[in-house]
Amino acid sequence: MRAHTRTEIASLATNSLQELAEKHGNCAGSQSDAFFAPELESRSPAVRQKAEAVVKRWCVGCPVRDLCLEIALRSEGDRGETPYGIWGGMTVAQRLPLIRARRDRNRQKQEVA
User: Fold this and answer.
1) Which candidate in 1, 94, 99, 107 could, as Cys together with 63 as Cys, close a disulfide (CB 3.0–4.6 Å)?
2) Higher per-residue confidence, 109 vs 30
3) CA-to-CA distance for 31 and 35, rounded, in angstroms?
4) Residue 60 located in a structural domain
5) 37 within 8 A of 51, measured Cβ to Cβ
6) Residue 57: phi, psi to the nearest 5?
7) Distance in angstroms between the alpha carbons of the first and the last residue of the chain
8) By CB neighbour count within 10 A (0-12 exposed, 13-18 middle, 19+ buried), where does 101 fall?
9) Does residue 1 sit within a domain?
10) CA–CA separation, 14 vs 71, rounded Å?
11) pLDDT tens-digit profile of 3-59?
């Protein structure tokens, strides 16, 4: 599968992004529970970081990593929710600066319009 440009990603509907990610992701067919394990929140930081590092290895070189990240960012922006887990190789804490930047850009666009 070829990489998608930012423009292509932005033009795809969220359900199309999800279909591509589920079909072509390195994690396709895996035990995806490892990517979204909320029970890790109650574990020590060392245990959580180790588990996250293992899961993130699946994302290295993934052909749909950018699509996966976009799914999470859209969920966070559209519903104001932050999907738990590893999306596009990033944890919630790693995505927060991207979420804030996107919200700021959207707010500025609305003010100009």
Assistant:
1) 1
2) 109
3) 8
4) yes
5) yes
6) -60, -30
7) 38
8) exposed
9) no
10) 6
11) 778 888 888 888 888 898 889 988 887 666 667 666 666 778 888 888 888 888 989
